[in-house]
Amino acid sequence: YLGNGTFTQTGGIKSVSGDLKIGFTSVDSIGTYNLSNVGSLSTNYVLLGDDGTGIFNQTGGTHAVNRLTTGGIGTGVYNLSAGSLTADIEIISEYKNGTFNQTGGTHNAGSIRIGELGGHGIYNLSAGSLSIGSLTLGINWDVVGTFNQTGGTHTVGGLVLGDFGNGIGFYNLSGGSVTVIGDELIGDIGKGTFSQTGGTHVINGQLIIGDEYYKKTRNPTGVYKLIAGDLSTTNVIIGVAATTTSAVTGTGTFTQTGGTHIVSGTMTVATSLNPQGDDNFAFYNLNGGNLTAANIVVNSGGHFNFNGGTLSVGNFTGNLVNNGGTLAPGSSPGITNISGDYTQSVTGIFAVEIGGLLAGTEYDVLNISGIANLDGTLNVSLDDFGSGQFSPQLGDSFDVLLAQQLQGSFSTLLYAALDPGLKWQIEYLIDAIDTTDVVRLSVVAAVPLPTAFWLFSSGLLGLFGFIRKPRAIS
Questions:
Q1: CA dist., res. 400 & res. 438, Å (int)
Q2: Three-point CA angle 178, 182, 185, nearest 5°
Q3: Which residues make Cβ contacts (< 8 Å) with residue 302, sequence separation at least 6?
């Protein structure tokens, strides 16, 4: 209350129907509660650090509480290393600094709010199991909420980073796993940053980075940094445009320098409704790692910057510029459909896997509705579907790239080895008529055929004329 007090419970049953306040009045007061072994504690409202310092150490036993506040006007710390904690509502840093350290045990909560009205709230998860109905980091007026996960298992119904009134939320994942059952919002109304340097992150609902705010008083900003680890998402929305002139567009940025990101549904870079005409509010920067997506849609105001890493996508809507990455169509193998133009710089790579003669199912195809501006590297490898590596034969051909119009050519050709006496041949088949142009790979004889044969072939071409090429694969 005014000085230092400690309560130690190693067994028995203790119930507090009113308030349990630890570190109550004096700034210098320090209150400590130690719960261990088979002790059972049931409380209505626990306040750690009302005005002084409150510490709760749980190394065993069970604790059930309706409302738990860590860090009132004073400083509060909850240390959970073993046993179980169950709470309806938890606030970490209500007015001042609050910290929750979980190094083991089981923690179940209906909702947890970290960084509510003041101070800096921090949750550190290194081991154990944490299950929450909803988690909000950084709730109000520049208050900071931080979640650091280096291990353990975290399951949460819904996750918000940076909420009302320009709250600031940080989630740092370097180990363990976090599974979001519903939606994850980064920069909902405030500012949110998710940094992943390891571990596993699964989002079953939508990942929204930079949401719209219905008033012009704040600028929602969301940032996701994927450096290492695995991220699995269903649908991703980066940058939500304002739907009215009285609202503010949310700015979203996803930067991937490593790790693996799998999008099973659709990634939308900038929503299409945008009455304010903003043209720079949504960004996906692929600089490294692996991005696999069923669908990617880039609308006005959105930018997909492909500077490195490997991109495997089923359908890409928008113009795609490869400035140093590897485009690997489909899902080994498969088809990538680009509704727009494709440009590959001298540092870009187009990787083709060939495991048979069927386009799109046994070898990769890049299907472009617009113009293909080609440079850089074509890298051809052979696949093994389980019965041995595919071995192309003389006369086999593969239409690996289709476009409305071809411009340029690959400056570097890297081919898989063929059987002795065979070699690869590349052709850029350009039709003067407005139909599909083709990049075709063929297997030909390594030793030139006799001159008489070529003269005979030339005569046939002159007799029958130019053969029209097939339309693009649908």
A1: 8
A2: 80
A3: 238, 239, 268, 269, 270, 281, 282, 283, 284, 318
Distance CA 432, CA 80 (A): 73
Location of structure tokens 């007026």? 141
The reported pTM is: 0.92
Q: pLDDT of 282-324, one tens digit each?
A: 999 999 999 999 999 999 999 999 999 999 999 999 999 999 9
Tokens found for residue 280: 């720079």
Q: What is the DSSP string of 390-416?
A: ----TT-EEEEEEEEEEEE--SEEE--
Question: In this predicted model, what pLDDT tens digit does every residue of 387-402 receive, in sequence order?
Answer: 899 999 999 999 999 9
Residue 131 contacts by C-beta under 8 Å, 6 or more apart in sequence?
A: 107, 108, 109, 154, 155, 156
CB 226 within 8 A of CB 254: yes
Whether the predicted pLDDT of 243 surpasses 50: yes
Find all residues with CB under 8 Å of 54, minimum gap 6, and list them: 21, 22, 23, 24, 30, 31, 32, 47, 48, 70, 74, 75, 76, 77
DSSP string of 290-325, one letter each residue? EEEEEEEEE-TTEEEEE-SSEEEEEEEES-EEESS-
Say which amino acid occupies 44. N
How far is the C-alpha of 294 from the C-alpha of 263, rounded, in Å?
A: 6
